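Standup notes
- DV: blocked on the single-chain target, sequence here:
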Amino acid sequence: MKALRAGLTTLTIVLGAISAQAQECGGDFEQWRAGVAAEARADGVGNAGLGALAAAQFDTRILARDRGQSVFTQDFDQFAGRMVNAYRLRNGAANMKKYAGAFSQAQQQYGVPAPVITAFWALETDFGAVQGDFSTLNALATLAHDCRRPALFRPHLIALLKLIEQGVLPADVTGAWAGEIGQIQMLPGDYLAEGVDGDGDGRVDLRRSVPDVILTAGRLISKLGWRAGEPWMEEVRVPNDLPWAETGRTNRLPLSQWAAWGVTTRDGGALGAGPDAGLVLPMGHKGPAFLVYENYDVYLEWNQSFVYTLTAAHLARRLAGDPAYRLGNPEPGLSPEQMRALQEKLVALGHDVGGIDGVLGVNTREAIRKEQMRLGFPVDGWPTPRLLAAL
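- DV (later): unblocked, structure below
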């Protein structure tokens, strides 16, 4: 109990500091809200939407969540091992069967296969079971007022007011802490622009109507760049002497080239025909390996976290019938504290790591690859104690 009180005291101090910072950066909340109201009114929002805005509250808990997304300090095996579980695989298969008609329509209209939509649906809300209990209005008002990403969230706040004005959503709608709504966790601007009436009842309900959810997800994924009929990811086996500097998501090469270097299918067979692909090594050259195609980039458009996108893509492959990936024997990684120490060294060497946060993001991986190349290490983007010591 004593430790709990100490923790709560620390949290109170942190939240107070966040609140003071946001008020200073975003200015007076009431004055800021008046500016949003004027913009919304000019954009066609009437009394219902403006009345909802008048009741919006600044919530320091939202900023605490925004600053502390520690889940992304996990490595791929930790995150995927937790998220790709028996419940999601079992219920995903059952839902693809139950709503086969809606999935078929989504594939016909947008070219997106059922396993791809289902994987996002599973990871976002466990098929609608966990949609979030934060006030969407307060979340978006807080994030739009905050100085970190106001240009991103202000349009979504006004879109929410439009949805309230139209009667699509109630003013007290709840969702995720970052303002996403419904079973696939869409921000209001996307809800407004991409929502599809999948069940033909004359309205788009992404909280309760599964056909609406499936068709809307298909449309959004298509708009993000999905290429119908093409693969997104394939697990492979790699040799010990691959030219590692040629690996990486963006370095797409013909499958014939990967085959010439000794890359095979997961079970050791020859690679088939297909578009160019990059080779991703989420835990280094001794860990799991995946060929990723242009469709994989759509996952990064959905969520920019490397571990989330690779997990979503793998879950989709599992739902399509693939077995679990082979972990291999990766070298030990770094703790979040060690990752921050590594990022500090990389910054000192002139690299842009996207912030010293202990997260192995895209920028940090690229900086690691450059230093591995300079030091003569296998260029796989995986941070190890050996690399940290060498720097």
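- Follow-up: Residues 1-24 have pLDDT under 50 and may be disordered.
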